[in-house]
Amino acid sequence: MKKILYIILFIFVLTSSTHGSGADSNTYSSGNESQSVSQSLFGLNDDYETPYYILHGRKTTPVILVQGGMHGDEIASYMACDEILKNIKITEGTLVIIPRLNKRACDLNTRYINVDLNHAFPGDIDSEVYEYRLAYEMMYMVDSLKPDLVINLHEALTKYDSEAANNSEKAFGQVVITCIQPFEEMLTDAVTNMNEKITAENQKFHPHYYSFSDWSSLDNFVSKFDIKSYTVETYRGFNIDTRIKLQQIAVLQFMKELGIKFDYPEIPLD
């Protein structure tokens, strides 16, 4: 039933500038450009209910889905989503963004409540543990909306170095993770282009292969739906302001690679 609701809501949002109960909409105009912004609730009436947003310009394709807050203590992930929502003006394409996927964990600044959400995929809607229900709904949402790209925002306690390149069993800060080898052109182009905006060598991103895991959100999106998906990891050793900026740079670059057109203020890095 929720899968049907996602499809109806997505179609309704993309074809209307006014919405009924359960969704709020605003249209911002600049000259001949306009952006529609709609808010709704993911996980309606469950423990993990959380807002998500759909932003689109006059042309609604391509579509990117961005989620932060899968791990509640990786705070730059959802703070970057907040900044993007506050500052972006899309003219062509659609951004679907869930700032705090695991809102309960985010509210308590803890990695998870019961089990690690990113180890709970593809989920179980009948589970007594809410993270499994949440993972199941996330899978249904991705399958229903069928975005062209899914970006997962995370943070890591260890930083990428020369030895990390050969470690496919661990995530590191300043990497963009894929479960596919060789690296796809979109990934390598995005990393190259985002690094042109980053002056400090230790802040630059690296494409990183993480071996397939059947419990991972990224791997399930790719294997079950054949949808491109990457995970952005920033290094938690950097100050929070830097991490938020790096997350924004990464998301915006993937949007550009996908062909979404938008306006966004310059992001100055120290």
Detailed description of the structure:
Helices cover 33% and strands 26% of the residues. By secondary structure, the protein is of the alpha/beta class. It has one domain (2-263): 3-Layer(aba) Sandwich (Aminopeptidase), CATH 3.40.630.10. Strands 1, 2, 3, 4, 5, 6, 7, 8, 9 and 10 form a ten-stranded mixed β-sheet that branches. Strand 7 (175-178), helix 5 (185-195) and strand 8 (206-209) form a beta-alpha-beta unit. Helix 1 (2-15) crosses helix 4 (130-145), helix 2 (75-87) packs across helix 7 and helix 5 (185-195) packs across helix 7 (240-258). The protein is globular and about 45 Å long. The N and C termini lie far apart (48 Å). The model is unreliable at 15-32 (pLDDT under 50).
Indicate the topology.
Elements: H1 2-15, E1 24-30, E2 33-42, E3 50-56, E4 59-67, H2 75-87, E5 89-98, H3 103-108, H4 130-145, E6 149-156, E7 175-178, H5 185-195, E8 206-209, H6 217-225, E9 228-235, H7 240-258, E10 261-263
Parallel strand pairs: 4-5, 4-6, 6-9, 7-8
Antiparallel strand pairs: 1-2, 2-3, 3-5, 5-10, 7-9
Structural class: alpha/beta
Rounded mean pLDDT is: 91
Specify the CATH architecture: 3-Layer(aba) Sandwich
- Could you list the spans in which at least 5 consecutive residues all have pLDDT below 50? 15-32
Spatial separation of the terminal alpha carbons: 48 Å
| CATH domain topology | Aminopeptidase
What is the CA-atom radius of gyration, in angstroms? Answer: 18 Å
